[in-house]
Amino acid sequence: MPIDLLLNNISKYIHLTEEERSIFVDYLQFKNFKRKQFLMHEGEVCKYSAFVTSGCLRGYTVDKNGIEHVLSFAPPDWWMGDMYSLISQKPGILNIEALEDTETITLSKTNQEKLYIAVPKFERFFRILTENALVANQQRIIDNLSLTAEERYGLFCKRYPTLIDHLPHKQIASYIGVTPEFFSRMRSGMLRRG
Fold first, then answer.
1. Cross-referenced Pfam families, in alphabetical order (predicted)?
2. pLDDT (tens digit per residue) in 59-104
């Protein structure tokens, strides 16, 4: 059941009583997105974070030349949102799109604030999520500056093992910061070398 996946995700960081679970579930909404449907566009204010129960989301930006740069993917058991916009309530920088039919459980910014008062443990949970995201983003910047494309692809495979054979190669290429053509040549070379 989708709610069980979310509760298991939360239980990695905090323990909830039955009453606290019930309070939490009351603040949630279930939202489904069709393939290529957007949860948000760049310039909009992010009003909620989404937990993926099936399908896959991607967060990306588009530069002034119209080139997409994928910042993150959210397969099942991952959270997605424009963290800058969600926290600041200013216009966001991300486009968040469903790569396939995707089921999510969402928590609005308003309900998240209410949840902190009703079940204070959730402040700890979301602090941990935010800290983990900050560390991962910093490491990603360092990796992009210091590692080869092959090494970045290796890290992608470790981070998103379920997506390796699931995503179009152009999405993976964008995530690791290379052109689809370069990615194709690189993968061919890697396969030849074993």
1. cNMP_binding
2. 999 999 999 999 999 999 999 999 999 999 999 999 999 999 999 9
Which pTM does this prediction carry?
Answer: 0.92
Q: How far apart are CA 39 and CA 33, in angstroms?
A: 8
How many whole angstroms separate alpha carbon 115 and alpha carbon 6?
16
CA-based nearest residue to 49, from 122, 137, 118, 146: 122
Whether 174 and 70 have beta carbons less than 8 Å apart is answered as yes
pLDDT at residue 112, as a whole number: 97
Report, in angstroms and rounded to the nearest whole number, the Rg of the chain calculated over CA atoms: 18
Domain map (residue ranges) of the chain:
2-120
How does pLDDT run across 128-168, given as a tens digit for each residue? Answer: 999 999 999 999 999 999 999 999 999 999 999 999 888 99
CA atoms within 13 A on the CB side of 18: 0
Distance of alpha carbon 14 from alpha carbon 122, whole angstroms: 8
31: helix, coil or strand? strand
User: Of 3.90.550.10, 3.30.1360.70, 3.30.365.10, 2.60.120.10, which CATH number belongs to 2-120?
Assistant: 2.60.120.10
Cβ contacts of 127 within 8 Å, gap of 6 or more:
none
